[in-house]
Design brief:
heteropentamer; A alpha+beta (about 475); B mainly alpha (about 325); C mainly alpha (about 290); D alpha/beta (about 325); E alpha/beta (about 350); C: about 290 residues; mainly alpha; MetI-like fold; elongated; E: about 350 residues; alpha/beta; Rossmann fold; 11 helices; about 30% helix; binds adenosine-5'-triphosphate; binds magnesium ion
């Protein structure tokens, strides 16, 4: 019970689960946070209308079913009956409308996900209608692929408590918060998906991977996703621990600033693409726990398309450079310590590109500065990853369309623009997939991004923790987990 | 006493105002934008503007400053950009971790430094003195965070005796607290202790050679009394200064140690807040730390006056 | 009676401990100058296949997570560390001494104002101030240097001011004033040379602390930029590798030895130049 | 009275070791009887303080002391530390030169007087305070009750020196050693202090060793005077003899170098040169290079003995007759 | 306010004294007591004059304001009021070049030979400094030649120029100080306890030297000391001070043979005599207590709190009384204070 001390390790009766995550949530308002660590917690406390299944296909969530009109401009969602908030009050269509309107009206960070949504209404207590002004093919993944679209409680929001004591409808309810240390959730026995099998779920914040692993080995925690990459091999051999991985949906890439010479020349960008040994990068950053990919979308994603035009080929790279008339190229590469893989990659790439006569000078800044520099275009090249995308459009449009919000590398290709726009309008899944695959190939050919890899989602847990599954979207779900004795 | 306190408080207010000006200026010179950080990687320009004005960042700097100082006087340090919590609350949550680490470290430092320094001074020139001097010289030169890393390597990774990091409030679990505080506190405590040892030694040495100590000896007082009543006591003023400086530094949060040991103290909070451009938290934390610093130096001055009647604080 | 500075070096060399410290400093300077020639491998030669090898005949200090030779990186990092600390302390020295001299000798409102500013800077946790400055200027060797320099200005200003205040009342300074010498002449000819003893002591101790500060900043990722080697940064990189103790032990040892050497020299200098008691200022080592 | 006197015999003090060793006191002997006063004069650095400090074991290490210091038949240099502590303050009272630094600035006058009384006489705190009050009265401090609670910095130089004297007298010592107690004071205050000690001595019959660099100061006080130079006794005589018939050229120089009130001269007889450095003493007579006489070829190479030149009159010179 | 010519020398109507100090007051800010700031009355209404080639002795106990007067003359402290004239020129009012010239003409020697030389400058550089400051002689070589002459003059070998203070003995240092004072070719030399901290034998050397120099160079001295015998030996005229005020002035002969002020008498009787026979049999006036605080001096005669002759009227204004020609005392009982028998009754 709360107030009698926080469980530090396995709870006294051995029935709770302690999971170590690598950092502390900044806040627990799902609409306002953008921190990965927040979502790890919120995944278990909030629900969305629909949610991705293991195959990343959208399944019913708070909405039991939905219907799309002929013109694809009206979406009607029918909500589950008998859903209650953690405080016992009843959940209804108004809550959905309130949540969505909040995001749109307050122009919160996820407002872009409602692009094209004209109106939201609740004709009755269990129906929500979304009216669009243009067809949005991937509306489901937009509103269900991300807990930032969670349905929140109006009173909880207005009292301001949502930031630290969120009230959701999810499988676990908020119990206790120790800043800097841990958050504890307890099972929501009335959850619509069935009561969780564990009474409590504690997230501890352990930034240091070796510490997290040590704690897991010592039995202080039951689960972690914060495993030192170089130890993955060893842990997987360890009989006393379970370790599993899935090819993740995230991807990491390099982008050169095409507003600056000579990066406006595709040959230079391609030279970089040829000059890089992705395997070595993967080895250095992830100790092999990643899949090399020359496009954004991983194999496990329904939108995957195979394409790998580049091989590690310094001769070719050098030739391309020579053809572009570039010599003694110095590249200022923006990396950030908040994402250590960028720093390591920077050093690896520096050593690789040295062989084709390019000097890479990594510039390590904190992420705030990094974002600033990216926004202002003050870089030659940068590395970063995109996390948590599901739909093909999410992978390409904003990044590579001439008008894309995140096209910081200033790529502009009429053909790609056309293909991406077509992808938005296409209705058939197959046709849509083809449009995007074509666009992706073109993007890769132009080396708008130099794609590097999809990191594996690697998680480890104690064997007593049964029924846990590693998901390729990285969502950490404890709703079905059991603890064996 | 009252007058002294008032005068010092006045001085403190001036210094604190200066501190706010400096942090405020620095923080607003920093490139990077708290709004961008808060929004993450995907957002629209409208969202950006909305959050910016909600955080009051669209007002002129001067008006932001005066607004800040004005409400700071009433104890309202604003709201964290990142968590939306009141800064005062955020700071109060972190304060126990920092203070308990500082306290443990100071205990270790003083408990080792005092006897060692006095012993070395009273055995000047002997082997034992040399050993103390060498060891304290080592202590002064060792990077405390490296010491911390070595401790983790040894006591956690290799021997598995102690948890490598984390924090448990003392009030909830004293044993857990102790097992976690011991490594960081020892790492910083030994360094502070080494510094203090050297000051204790030289202050006691000087006091030993003083003419009034000679008078005390000439009175035929026993050596123990000469040392305690005349030598050590008179050496206290410089020693207290140094202990005060060390305590102030520790209370400000030993950032690097807190990072190494994942200690949720003020230092790490501030460091993270700088990275996230969470201005209100940075400002609040610096203000708090500066206040602690000023309180410590005031306490040191009061202690002086208790020890030394020549210092009048009427 | 205290000796004067030009004989100080010979006095210093006669003390075995200080001489050893001086020897190490000279060795470090040599490393800093000749590092690239002396290092057995290129410091940035990434070779993932050789990652995390323990010390061996081939790699005396082992290799790091990117397969780079730790010894070579430790050797090459000497340059950065020394450069940062020497330059930053020089900045602090020049600015601090000038400020201290002027306000200490003339007193008046400038004294009040500047000492208030110094109080303000002192009330800051120093590391934090450095971090904030780095945040403003962006991380890098230059900024780290500037940040550490700025942070140490008040220390020098205070030490100098205290000495200048005392020197004002020294009969020989008053004697010069009685002759009719102007304030600038007095400061230049009488005050400056005589504040040098505590300032020299403070300088060498500050060099030690600056090395530590640089290491701490680099450890936090705010100092030297990768792939350029730096001891603090190497500690940071090695932190996660609990099995690869050599990644943490050797760079830390390098910091320790360097700081120790500067401290030994500083201590020796104090004993030779300024044998009065150590000032509290000397205890300001920052975390 | 048959309280014991005090004597040092062949006392030698070497400060420091090795090359930097300084022989600051070299074979000094003198004695003073109960009720009598011995004046010890000599210029700065002649070893006056070192002699008395060494005899009471008050020198800081590293100091090598040989010879003996006799108080009531016991050699202080042979006593254990605890035994010596029982004698210092109890039977041997000290007054030092600088009343500013010789008192502990952090303790009240009362505490500084009473701690010795409690230590040696086993008095209670109350009783000790009462004696302290009486002592302050006897050393001529007005309003002693108030002064007991004062700290040294609240007193004038003269009063501080009186407090020092009160401390030295607190346990009724047999011997009072006063090391230039008036040098830092004004003449009018000096006169008060001299008067005070003179009067106390008459009452208690203690032996007094009065150190000064000024012959005039000991003139009215001392029975015998010892003149020190370069760590040695160069002349010893009853005070009248010393004044009327000084035997050593240094003593004569000293006498001629001071202007005397009411007796104007055109020229002072200055002694050329400066006192010797105890780290580099000449092989012969220490005074040789400054000596206006240099009356014997041995002067340069041989240290003259202290020879009897008159009744109770000794001088360290080869040519005592050469006056 | 006194406006008649200052006591001391210069009573001769036609000759202008070299130094003429009138109604000099120097006050220092004391500790603040609440709103009210107290003042240290270091020198109050002091007037005196010195003729060229003469020595004026300034004698008094610690804290009587002697050094403050010297410092005011050399402009090390600003006087609160009063005037100082050198050769008829107003020293305190001068600005710019004339002020520099006046500074050149008044030199000072300080008490502590260890502290008054810059430890980092050679004796030569120290002696040369006044010439450098006042741009005397052309070029360094000539100045160095002059340094050698000066060292000669004060009885030091020329090689001393290359030595540092710590390589010199106290007496040698004081000679260097004197050489420095003479370097700028001054008219007046203020000697502030110039011999006090030296060994007896060396004191004699320095006093002899000073008198020789005066004879040779026609210097004028202000000899500040608390040593009555030394002042008697050195001075033509004497000024006795107590707590910042004048007590008595006169020619040395007059003042020492017939001290008129009770303070002077007490002071002189406190000086021990080296001859034990004389010392044991002489009358002494022992003053009780300590001098009052200069922060809060008594009204009227400041000596009255310790004076054996004090009466109620002493709290009133103190007139300047003439004892004999050129001999003045500031005491209402000047005429009747002479009998030792009467004094003895007040002896403690
Ligand atoms: N700690 C010390 N180390 C080395 N030499 C010392 C030390 N203390 C004193 N001396 C030397 O010992 C010698 C004798 O000193 P002492 O104090 O006995 O002289 P003094 O006759 O009392 O002189 P003063 O009149 O100055 O008190 C001096 O030459 C002095 O320099
Ligand atoms: N700068 C100053 N600030 C405050 N008070 C001062 C200052 N200088 C001197 N005084 C005070 O002025 C008075 C006269 O001091 P001064 O130094 O002139 O005396 P003095 O006669 O030279 O004494 P001494 O023999 O001790 O040198 C003293 O009470 C002294 O404390
Ligand atoms: Mg002595
Ligand atoms: Mg004076």
């Amino acid at each position: 019970s709360p107030g009698t001390g926080v469980d530090r390790g396995l709870s006294k009766d051995g029935s709770g689960v302690v999971a170590a995550i690598a950092g502390e949530p900044d806040q627990l308002d799902p609409h306002r946070t953008s921190a990965y660590f927040s979502f790890q917690v919120l995944e278990n406390t909030f629900d969305t209308l629909v949610e991705p299944g293991e195959d990343l296909v959208m399944r019913p969530g708070l909405a039991e079913r939905w219907k799309v009109s002929e013109d694809r401009l009206t979406w009607t969602f029918t909500l589950r009956k008998g859903v209650t908030w953690h405080d016992g009050s009843t959940f209804g269509a108004d809550d959905v409308v309130y949540s969505y309107r909040r995001i749109i009206d307050e122009k919160l960070g996820n407002a872009w996900r409602f692009d094209g949504v004209k109106d939201i209404s609740a004709p009755d207590d269990s129906t929500v209608v979304l009216k669009l002004d243009k067809p949005v093919y991937n509306l489901l993944s937009r509103i269900g692929g991300h807990k930032g679209l969670a349905i929140v409680n109006k009173r909880n929001v207005e009292s301001g408590k949502i930031k630290t004591r969120p009230l959701g409808t999810g499988p676990f309810s908020f119990d206790d918060y120790n800043p800097g240390e841990s958050i504890r959730l307890k099972a929501n026995s009335r959850w619509w998906g069935g009561a969780p099998k564990i009474p409590s779920l504690t997230f501890r914040f352990i930034p240091e991977p070796t510490t997290a692993l040590a704690d897991l080995e010592a039995g202080e925690i039951n689960w972690t996703d914060n495993i030192p990459p170089q130890q993955v091999e060893r842990v997987s051999q360890n009989e006393d621990l379970e370790l599993d991985s899935a090819v993740g949906n995230d991807y990491w890439y390099l982008a050169a600033n095409q507003d600056r010479r000579p990066f406006d020349d595709p040959r230079v960008r391609k030279a970089i693409a040829y000059g890089i040994d992705r395997k070595a990068v993967v080895q250095a950053t992830q100790y092999g726990n990643a899949t090399v990919n020359q496009l954004a979308i991983p194999k496990t994603n329904p939108w995957y398309a195979a394409y790998s035009p580049y091989s590690h080929n310094t001769r070719r790279a050098a030739k391309l450079l020579a053809a572009a008339g570039v010599r003694d190229l110095k590249i200022d590469m923006l990396v950030t310590k908040e994402y250590p893989e960028t720093v390591i990659t920077g050093q690896v790439i520096a050593s690789q590109l040295e062989k084709i006569g390019i000097t890479v000078q990594p510039r390590e800044v904190d992420f705030a500065t990094w974002l600033d520099k990216q926004g202002k275009g003050e870089f030659d090249m940068l590395m970063l990853g995109w996390l948590g995308n599901l739909d093909a459009e999410d992978f390409y449009y904003a990044q590579h369309h001439s008008d894309g919000d995140f096209n910081f590398q200033k790529y502009s290709s009429p053909e790609v623009d056309r293909l991406l726009e077509a992808g938005q309008k296409e209705t058939g899944k197959k046709a849509r997939k083809d449009r995007y695959a074509e666009a992706a190939r073109k993007i890769a050919d132009d080396a708008s991004y130099v794609y590097l890899y999809n990191p594996d989602v690697v998680q480890a847990w104690a064997p007593q923790l049964e029924n846990y599954k590693v998901r390729s979207d990285g969502a950490v779900r404890f709703r079905d987990v059991r603890l064996a004795d | 006493m009252l007058r002294f306190s008032l005068a010092r408080a006045g001085h403190a207010v001036v210094v604190l105002l200066g501190v706010t000006v400096v942090v405020f200026t620095l923080m607003h010179l920093v490139p990077g934008d708290p709004v961008r950080v808060a929004l993450g990687t995907q957002y629209t320009p409208e969202s950006y503007e909305a959050l910016r004005s909600a955080s009051g960042l669209d007002r002129p700097l001067i008006s932001q400053y005066f607004h800040y100082v004005g409400s700071a006087f009433t104890g309202d340090l604003g709201v964290s950009f990142r968590t939306g919590e009141p800064v005062t609350l955020v700071l109060l949550e972190r304060l126990p971790a920092t203070l308990s680490l500082a306290f443990a470290a100071m205990v270790i430092a003083v408990v080792t430094a005092f006897p060692l320094g006095v012993y070395a001074a009273t055995h000047q020139g002997r082997i034992s003195d040399t050993i103390v001097r060498v060891v304290s010289q080592f202590g002064v030169s060792v990077p405390d965070f490296w010491l911390g890393i070595l401790f983790i390597l040894l006591f956690s990774s290799t021997l598995g005796w102690l948890p490598p990091s984390g924090y448990v409030p003392l009030t909830e679990d004293p044993v857990g607290w102790l097992s976690r505080v011991i490594m960081p506190a020892t790492a910083v405590g030994l360094v502070s202790g080494a510094i203090i040892t050297r000051f204790v030694r030289s202050a006691v040495l000087e006091s030993l050679g003083s003419e009034h100590a000679r008078t005390a000896r000439a009175k035929g007082l026993r050596r123990r009394i000469v040392r305690s009543r005349h030598v050590v006591r008179n050496a206290m003023v410089p020693i207290i200064t140094v202990i005060g400086v060390q305590a102030a530094i520790l209370m400000g949060g030993v950032i690097v140690i807190e990072v190494v040991f994942a200690w949720p103290g003020l230092g790490r909070l501030t460091f993270d807040a700088v990275s996230a451009r969470d201005y209100p938290v940075v400002q609040g934390a610096v203000l708090l730390v500066a206040t602690l610093f000023l309180l410590v130096s005031m306490a040191v001055d009061l202690l002086y006056a208790r020890i030394d009647p020549r210092i009048s604080i009427r | 009676m205290s000796a004067r500075p030009f004989s100080a070096w010979s006095h210093l060399l006669r003390r075995p401990v200080s001489a050893a410290g001086l020897g190490v400093v000279v060795l470090l300077l040599t490393l800093a100058l000749l590092g690239p020639q002396l290092a057995p491998y290129g410091p940035n030669a990434v070779d993932v296949t050789r990652a995390l090898q323990p010390p061996s005949m081939e790699h005396w200090f082992g290799t790091d997570d990117l397969g780079r030779d730790v010894l070579s990186r430790v050797v090459l990092a000497a340059r950065v560390s020394l450069q940062v600390s020497l330059i930053s302390v020089s900045i602090a020295l020049v600015v601090g001494v000038v400020l201290g001299l002027v306000v200490g000798y003339f007193r008046g409102w400038a004294d009040t104002v500047i000492m208030r500013v110094v109080d303000v800077v002192f009330a800051f946790p120093i590391m934090l101030l450095a971090i904030a400055i780095v945040a403003v200027l962006g991380p890098g060797v230059t900024t780290a240097t500037v940040a550490i320099g700025v942070v140490y200005v008040p220390v020098f200003a205070r030490v100098t001011r205290a000495s200048a205040l005392a020197l004002r009342e020294e009969p020989y300074v008053r004697a010069a004033a009685a002759i009719g010498a102007g304030p600038l002449r007095i400061i230049r000819a009488h005050v400056l040379p005589n504040v040098s003893a505590p300032v020299i002591v403070q300088t060498s101790l500050s060099l030690a602390f600056a090395i530590l500060s640089e290491a701490a900043l680099s450890f936090l990722g705010l100092g030297v930029q990768p792939p350029q080697p730096s001891w603090g940064r190497m500690l940071f990189d090695g932190k996660g590798f609990t099995d690869a103790w050599w990644m943490s032990v050797f760079p830390g040892l390098a910091i320790f030895v360097t700081v120790l050497a500067f401290n030994l020299v500083g201590d020796g200098l104090r004993d030779v130049l300024d044998p009065r008691r150590r000032s509290a200022m000397e205890s300001r080592r920052d975390r | 009275m048959n309280a014991p006197g005090f004597a040092v015999r062949d006392l030698t003090v070497v400060l420091g070791r090795g090359k930097r060793a300084a022989r600051v006191v070299r074979g000094v002997s003198w004695s003073v009887e109960a009720g009598a006063t011995l004046g010890v004069v000599g210029e700065s650095g002649s070893g006056k303080s070192m002699t008395v400090l060494a005899s009471a074991g008050l020198l800081p290490p590293p100091a090598a002391v040989t010879g003996s210091a006799l108080l009531g038949g016991r050699d202080l240099l042979k006593l254990s530390r605890r035994e010596l502590e029982g004698i210092r303050g109890r039977r041997l009272g000290f007054v030092f030169q600088d009343p500013m630094t010789s008192l502990n600035p952090l303790l009240t006058v009362e505490r500084q007087i009473t701690e010795g009384i409690e230590e040696h006489l086993g008095a209670t705190r109350r009783a000790a305070r009462d004696s302290a009050r009486v002592l302050l009265e006897t050393v001529g401090i007005p309003d002693p009750d108030r002064r007991l609670d004062a700290y040294p910095h609240q007193l004038s130089g003269g009063m501080r020196q009186r407090v020092m004297i009160a401390i030295a007298l607190s346990c009724g010592p047999d011997v009072l050693i006063a090391d230039e107690p008036t040098t830092a004071l004004d003449v009018t205050t000096q006169a008060q202090i001299l008067d005070l000690v003179r009067e106390r001595q008459e009452r208690t019959g203690m032996a007094v060793v009065w150190i000064s660099h000024d012959l005039a100061v000991v003139g009215g006080l001392a029975d015998d005077v010892v003149v020190m130079y370069g760590g040695q006794v160069v002349e010893q005589a009853p005070v009248e003899t010393l004044h009327s018939a000084p035997a050593h050229p240094y003593t004569r120089g000293l006498l001629g170098a001071r202007p005397v009130l009411g007796r104007r001269r055109d020229q002072l007889t200055a002694i050329p040169g400066t006192p010797p450095d105890p780290r580099a003493l000449p092989s012969g007579c220490v005074f040789f290079d400054r000596c206006p006489v240099k009356g014997d070829p041995r002067c340069e190479t041989q240290v003259p003995d202290l020879v009897e030149v008159g009744r109770r009159h000794f001088a360290r010179t080869f040519c005592p007759e050469d006056q | 306010m006194r406006s008649e010519p200052g006591p001391g020398t210069g009573q001769d109507a036609q000759s202008v004294p070299l130094l003429d100090v009138r109604n000099l007051c120097v006050r220092f800010p004391g500790p603040r007591e609440g709103r009210h700031r107290s003042w240290v009355h270091a020198v109050e209404d002091v007037s005196f004059a010195v003729d060229r080639g003469q020595t004026l002795g300034l004698v008094g106990e610690s804290g009587s304001g002697k050094s403050t007067i010297g410092n005011a003359l050399t402009r090390l402290v600003p006087p609160t009021s009063g005037t100082v004239h050198l050769d008829g020129q107003d020293v305190l009012a001068a600005r710019g070049a004339p002020a520099r010239e006046l500074r050149r003409r008044i030199a000072m020697v300080f008490q502590d030979p260890y502290a008054s030389l810059d430890p980092r400058r050679t004796a030569g550089a120290t002696v040369r400094e006044p010439m450098d400051v006042h741009r005397m002689l052309s070029g360094r070589a000539e100045r160095n030649r002059r340094v050698a002459e000066l060292l000669d003059l004060v009885g030091l070998v020329r090689e001393t120029a290359a030595r540092y203070p710590h390589e010199l003995s106290g007496g040698q240092r004081q000679r260097v100080s004197i050489a420095r004072a003479l370097a700028a070719d001054p008219d007046l030399v203020v000697l502030d306890e110039a011999t006090a901290s030296l060994d007896v034998s060396v004191q004699a050397q320095i006093m002899n030297l000073l008198r020789e120099l005066q004879g040779e160079l026609g210097l004028t001295y202000l000899f500040v000391s608390h040593d009555l015998a030394a002042v008697e030996h050195m001075s033509h005229h004497v000024v006795v001070m107590y707590l910042g005020r004048l007590m008595e002035t006169g020619t040395t002969d007059h003042l020492y043979t017939r001290p008129a002020h009770p303070y002077t008498q007490a002071l002189m009787s406190a000086v021990p005599d080296p001859d034990p026979a004389t010392e044991r049999n002489r009358e002494r006036i022992l003053l009780g207590g300590d001098p009052p605080s200069p922060l809060d001096p008594p009204s009227g005669c400041v000596f009255r709190t310790r004076c054996p002759l004090a009466v109620d009227e002493c709290a009133g204004p103190v007139p300047q009384t003439t004892v004999s020609a050129n001999h003045f005392a500031w005491c209402i009982r000047t005429g009747e204070s002479l009998s030792p028998e009467r004094l003895r009754r007040f002896v403690h």
